[in-house]
Amino acid sequence: MNRQNIGIIGAGRVGAVLGAALVRAGHRVIAAVGVSAASKARAEQLLPGVQLLPADRVAASADLVLLAVPDDVLAGLVNGLVETGALRPGQIVAHTSGAHGLAVLAPVTTVGAEPLALHPAMTFTGTEDDLRRLDGASFGVTAPDHLRETAAALVADLGGVAEWIDEERRPLYHAALAHGANHLATLVSEAMDRLRDAGVRHPEQVLAPLLGAALDNTLRLGDAAITGPVSRGDAGTVAKHLKALESVAPGSVPPYLALARRTADRVIAAGRLRPIDAEPLLDVLGSAARNRRDTEERAA
């Protein structure tokens, strides 16, 4: 797209990296907002020489204003920029929220600015390593029809690929990403903790090849890649798992139960496990869930 003067409001992990990617593509980041010590250090590393200014001054000086702030503060920021007169006709105001679409940017249209929702489907560390990961990454984009070409060009400049998401489906799109990526990180951390409890000194070495293969197989094969005791209906093994977890890490029991039940539902629906063969397994899971509820109710 035509080279733009860009202002970044929110020099966090996402904003600073996207700013660096845009500079790499030939755009000019003229100012950014960085309040915390971490944001200032990140801006200095990824956006050297870029001025750190208040939000209204950043917005007023830019052709494209990139809002890279937490979801829950986005609406207040947008309203504040409009109320302070920081925006003008013809500007593009883009946010990086996955859950929000164009509705949250509706106030900018009252002053003639153009709204754009531009979410990178990527996890960020806030370092230069992220620039490499952006190449080929998908961006969930919601844009007015007349801005689609501009949005696609902007995503291409970032090294990504546009995935067009309807306004009403943004929350579902974002839920899917959070469920897959954020909960995966929690799940892997839990697995590493339980391996340490079992005496494994370097759980990451044990898990890396196993999880790498599981992820690769699942992305290629879907439910056909599910293996393990639940997929086989091994009720006795699952009962032993639950007993061991209850004795060492009771907080891990509810997520294990939820995921085991969901795994059972999927392999049954896929025809991998016959309902009649699944009954002992489902009994174990149901009994454990009831016992947990009874325990919690007595404790309350």
Provide structural commentary.
- The chain is an alpha/beta fold and 300 residues long.
- The chain is built from 13 helices and eight strands.
- α7 (148-157) links the parallel β7 (138-142) and β8.
- It has helices at residues 13-24, 37-46, 55-60, 71-83, 106-109, 129-134, 148-157, 170-197, 203-221, 229-232, 235-248, 253-269, 275-299; strands at 5-9, 28-33, 51-52, 64-67, 92-95, 114-120, 138-142, 161-164.
Short description:
The chain contains 13 helices and eight strands. By secondary structure, the protein is α/β, with parallel strands linked by helices. It folds into two domains: 5-165, NAD(P)-binding Rossmann-like Domain (Rossmann fold); 172-299.
Supply database-style keywords.
300 residues, alpha/beta, 13 helices
Compute the separation of the termini in Å: 60 Å
Give me the count of strands: 8
Sheet-strand content, in percent, reads 5-15%
Helix/strand structural class: alpha/beta
Which ranges are low-confidence, i.e. pLDDT below 50, for 5 or more consecutive residues?
none
| C-alpha geometry | elongated
Order of helices and strands: EHEHEHEHEHEHEHEHHHHHH
What name goes with the CATH superfamily of the largest domain? NAD(P)-binding Rossmann-like Domain
Task: Provide the fold topology.
Layout: E1 5-9, H1 13-24, E2 28-33, H2 37-46, E3 51-52, H3 55-60, E4 64-67, H4 71-83, E5 92-95, H5 106-109, E6 114-120, H6 129-134, E7 138-142, H7 148-157, E8 161-164, H8 170-197, H9 203-221, H10 229-232, H11 235-248, H12 253-269, H13 275-299
Helix pairs in contact: 1-2, 11-13, 12-13
